[in-house]
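To fix ideas, we quote verbatim one protein's residues and fold tokens.
>
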Amino acid sequence: MTDKRYIELLSNPGTVKLADIPVLEYPEFMDFIDLMMGEEGTHCVAYFVLEQENAYRFICCMAADENHAVVILSHEQPLEPGILLQSLTAKHFQFHAFEREIHENFKVDFAGHPWLKPVRYPFNRPDAEKVMDNYPFYTIEGEDLHEVGVGPIHAGIIEPGYFRFICHGEKVLHLEIQLGYQHRGVEKLFTEKKEILQQSVLAESIAGDTVTGHSMAYAGLIESLAGMEIPQNLSRERVIALELERIAVHIGDTAALCTDIAYQFGQVVNEALRTIVINTTQLWCGNRFGKGLIRPGGTNYPLTEEIIAVVLKNLEEVEERYLQVTGSLFSLPSVLGRFEGTGKVTTMQASLIGAVGMAAKSSGMYRDIRWSHPFSAYVGHMYEPVMLHKGDVWSRAMLRKMEVEKSVAVIREMVKEIGNIQNSGFKQAGRPVYDSEFAPSSLAISMVEGWRGEICHVAVTGDSGEIVHYKAKDPSFHNWMALALAVRNQEISDFPLCNKSFNLSYCGNDL
């Protein structure tokens, strides 16, 4: 018997009619969320408000990892100020940022929420009195305590963010992270820029180190709304691009971790290897970060035999040298002394905050969209995520090495399958499609496992098929809280190392 409390999506990406999403009374909505949260691996991927003519519609998308499904449900509230709802965060902390965002954008109050502080400070927020200068930082009273502020402008080219530590001597008791300095209004631009090419370029700009990940999420969304079928070889080419991006960033982050512990040999070698990988992407599409490569419906840069040969050759060199340098890295006592036991995030903590991607897998959580909600050429493949349990800097560094090995294997498998498809008379991918018509009055959702973790894009169309609401979520939206937990009871001097071990995105949060 069909449960009338939700609608279920079994494909990723996927589209449903807005009219088919059940509208529950809020108490029933809360009860069902509570029921779902009792299931292993279930977590929220999107919770937002759609402003309708006569009501605010709150739409929640829950990923049921074990069932490989996305469950969608909603509730409605009157289109008036002063809405007060019981907080989901009070019982399930992973909703904290979703409810804070709704509060900031629509002035909805959530009774029982521990800290309804701003997320992004949009220019059109209903409460203009909440500004950076009067941000309500958490405080602890005590003569032996002191506060340390870092940012928002950092050395070098790091993005703006402010970190306030409460310390007892050198030990960090609490870290509060304030972001939102570069709120760009990206989601609003997706509704203002009507051309698919404009939106494609916008998707590439969500997070500069995750061009392929966010572009794939956007392209999948558009293709689902338009009912496009993608040739098999194009799906495999996209996966190759995604895994090249993963390899490049993980190797670059390994270099950065070496920098923070003064292991110069590891820094120099890994930086050189990262360059080889991103130059391979540049050879393919003309841009080191993959801009222009992923487009809805087709491609301007088909993967030729000549490029495939270079990809395989370069990967062979990178893999051999990377395994050599990481073999040295993870066997040096001086390195292990800095990595092991530093910045621990337990499995329980990771689960409570709804951690995704690396932050989850390094803390013992089996969470990877390639496995739980397969997309593109991962469909039909039994992808097995790598996972570690210690939750410290060592785990997050080692997980990068393991991810690189897995990604190299995936690329080789995809290349092999492309060859098999070509030999059997395949449908060649055409040029990108920029004139599609979308399903009207519908909601589409697309999830991709980027190098940081779960990326989620949601689009809602109006009666004429135009996009009227867009939500984009970078993994950092979930994982900044993991960094705050990692530095508790650590020496404040360990913060740069902990921070680099996550390498979260400021701009990916400040949408």
User: Anything to note?
Assistant: The longest strand covers residues 42-51. The chain has two domains: 7-119, 186-502.
